[in-house]
Amino acid sequence: MSSREVVLKCHKIIGGYGEGEALVSHEPICFYLTDPKTGIVREKDHELAGKSIADKVLVFPSGKASSVVQIDGLFKLAQHKVAPKALIAKDVETVLVVSAFIVKIPLVDRLEKDAFEVIRTGEFVEVDAEKGIVTIKKQEA
Amino acid sequence: MTVSLCVKLRGLNMYLTKDEERILAGEFGEGTQKALELLVAIGDAYDAERMIPVSRAHAASSGQEGDLYFVELLANGGAKCKVPTSTNPVYDIPYFHKIFANIPENEADVAKRVMDGYRRLGAILSWSCVPYLAENIPLFGETVAFSESSATPYVNSVIGARTNREAAQSALAAGVVGKTPLYGLHIKENRKGTHLVKVSATLKDEFDYTLLGYYVGKQIGYGIPVLTGISARPNTEELINFCAMSNVSGAISMFYMPGLTVEASTVEEAFQDDVPKDEISVTDRELKKAYDELQTASGKIDFVLLGCPHYTLKQLEEVAGLLKGKKIREGVSFWVCTSATARILAERNGYVGIIEGAGGRVVVDTCIDEPCWFAFKDKVGMTDSPKCAYYRRFKDAMVGRLEDCVDAAVKGRRE
Q1: What span, in angstroms and rounded, lies between the C-alpha atoms of A34 and B215?
Q2: pLDDT tens track for B64-85
Q3: Do B262 and B206 lie in a common domain?
């Protein structure tokens, strides 16, 4: 088994550095609908239902739900130290920027290749938002 | 050159003035610095070229911990609002604690600190969700930053000022810095209508506009609807309800009613001569469907909660008119939320006296989504606002017209 690194440029929105296992969601995420103590997605019928977003590098299309619940949702996860380590999103709007800003989690978008094609759940990912670089450690048999 | 150096260091494209750079460098204190940092991040997300001045802001303060964190970050960092910045309701702390002993201490503490934070920031302490009626009124064409579900579309569409769909924090940051990134609805092309909504339903009262907003928001989700076919000019309260509901069931930051709202007098102008992305029609059947979806139950009720969004003076007059000569049934708690300014006039005009005489309460500074309603956690109530029912602070909240709410309060049950 060998590992290979894929290094991609990205667009920084909220700076900082975060690394962890990737968790890919093709559906929008509402942080309020996760368990604030564990980070487990509680939203029924969500593709991540039952999975924890704690300490992950979360790859997702966008946020959703009203600004108040979305921001408070991520804030509570951070208070319990179960927030994601970094956010890689596709459509970033004001509420998501505010959410990441107040919990100081790096937020990036516009990877030079489609994040949903390049990154697989479980791969180790480093997000260096300051440098505008995402590094994916690919495991190959 | 400082500007290009800064751009290089940040690796970004947004142009910042010398003054803005000095704010970012912390020369004007940490509070203002953090506020601008947030605005720059938002600008970068939208590829904004630069910042533009805003003349006023409305922060949808909420008494939640995420809100508290940001307010204290700015207030403790010495920031002050640079332009008039009004605040959303939290709750009337001394009033509610006198009535209910069981409001959780930690929640009350958060509310107290949020309110104190805005006070220290020099905000307009309106504690109202309809500040555009009295405390903080934009004019046509003004550039502002207004958060709050009814405020954003009302300001854009009814008044014709320009605001993006702000979060409480981004609006507060804009109020503190006096600027916002140039993106979204601040740009004319982005104010183009997206969906044509042909209305043939009969709209006879404020509640019908609530249903219309609910249906349109749900159908369109995100977009700028252009509504045609509305023959009678809607009044202020009807427009408030339409705004509040369409921006809760969907994300409608702006709409047009050509000929009735100010920005476009014709349908073509609203679409900026482009074709609609989609078209929907709203007949009586769709409104009935919306109503049926919201109907939750009938039977015994413990409380009635009105004033989401905050009731206007006219609505307080209506409540007083319906309650005159009647008594609210024992065991039913009857509440109307309004702004401090509307209450003063309602008191002067005798409406508060009538409502209180019938056994009701008229409360200011308070939102229905606050811990002060803790006592109703396991209770069933009734409201004329689907938004109120949606917050789920209660076991159940049935939705109906104001007349039905008052009737249920008098009888102790919804028929």
Answers
A1: 28
A2: 888 999 999 999 999 999 999 9
A3: yes
Conformation bin of residue B356: beta by default, left when phi > 0, alpha when psi is -120 to 50 = alpha
Q: Does B87 contact chain A (CB < 8 Å)?
A: no
pLDDT tens, residue by residue, B203-250: 999 999 999 999 999 999 999 999 999 989 999 999 999 999 998 888
Q: How many CB pairs under 8 A join A and B?
A: 76
* Residue A81 DSSP label: T
% of chain B beyond a pLDDT of 90: 85
- Asked if residue B205 lies in contact with residue B174, where contact means CB atoms within 8 angstroms, the answer is no
Decide if A67 and B147 are in contact by the 8 Å CB cutoff.
yes
Other C-beta atoms within 10 Å of B49: how many? 13
- Contact assignment for B248 to A66 by CB distance below 8 Å: yes
Is the minimum CB–CB distance between A62 and chain B shorter than 8 Å? no
Residues B300 and B377 in one domain: yes
Q: Is A66 a catalytic residue?
A: yes
- A27: contact with B, CB 8 A cutoff: no
Interface check for A3 against chain B (CB to CB < 8 A): the answer is no
**pLDDT for position B30:** 98
Please tell me whether residues B235 and B275 are part of one structural domain.
yes
- Co-location of B346 and B369 in the same domain: yes
Q: At what angle do helices B168-177 and A94-103 cross, to 10 degrees?
A: 80
Q: List, in order of start, the domains of chain A with CATH numbers.
A: 2-140 (3.50.30.10)
Which residue in A has a C-alpha nearest to residue B181's C-alpha?
A: A94
Q: Please determine, for residue B153, whether its predicted confidence score (pLDDT) is greater than 80.
A: yes
